[in-house]
């Protein structure tokens, strides 16, 4: 069965059917064996990393993380709060010599409390299920329990997420004046392929690449205020891009939005993050969200070069289904 990649062809009254047809058509279960824990990250080979290392020409490093502090976008949905940073030892304590150290020694210590997916982060393979099934067809309850993700915990990806990164600046491509897509804009396959053609050979996407999609929403939120950035209307990928995400064999994808896919979702009946439901548990694709792609977008536009060495390893938090990160692009 041919599945349309035109959003106009979606049956907006049938999210179950539209999700199900794509899940079945693009499923990668068993592709890397029944014991696989990495999904599409298997596509990042040593040869791909050697290729990516050759892209470093200026020695310039750009962090793609937003600040981890209380000035963040979260509003408490599903207990997601912004990071809370607390000092447990300070310079004041040292001045008062009440820390118990000998010979004038003093120091500072601190602690941070935060949900793992409240800021720049990866969604791990245990984050989303499809009808009670996790990545590779495993029962969700046998994968993630109160003890964490016992099978595909984010720690397995700790040394995997270094590869060729490719920026697709769809914001600048579609809106050259503002560089920002409007909230609710559904990015199509035609948009992605048109952006690649416009940007040139350095943005051609291949197997094992990590694709970064800039919509411009993050920059708008930092300029105008967070507003409903966390969970509200946003530009993002259409459900109809699922086939492109599968056939390009990319290793991972990240956006500068809270939820990766277009919001509101593309249905007239209740639906929630349908593209997540296809790509994480069925394709095995790792997804990044809330990345700051503003400086990188400016750098790539100035140089005309859109690929780079990208290093974005998660924290090896045992059993976690996601991780905060400080991804860096090396140009």
UniProtKB/TrEMBL annotation:
One of its GO terms (biological process) is L-tryptophan catabolic process to kynurenine. Residues 9-21 have a biased composition (Basic and acidic residues). Residues 1-21 are annotated as: Disordered. GO terms for molecular function: arylformamidase activity. SUPFAM superfamilies: Putative cyclase. It comes from the Bacteria. InterPro entries: KFase/CYL (IPR007325), KFase_sf (IPR037175). Gene3D superfamilies: Putative cyclase. This is Cyclase. It comes from Cnuibacter physcomitrellae. The lineage of its organism: Bacteria, Bacillati, Actinomycetota, Actinomycetes, Micrococcales.
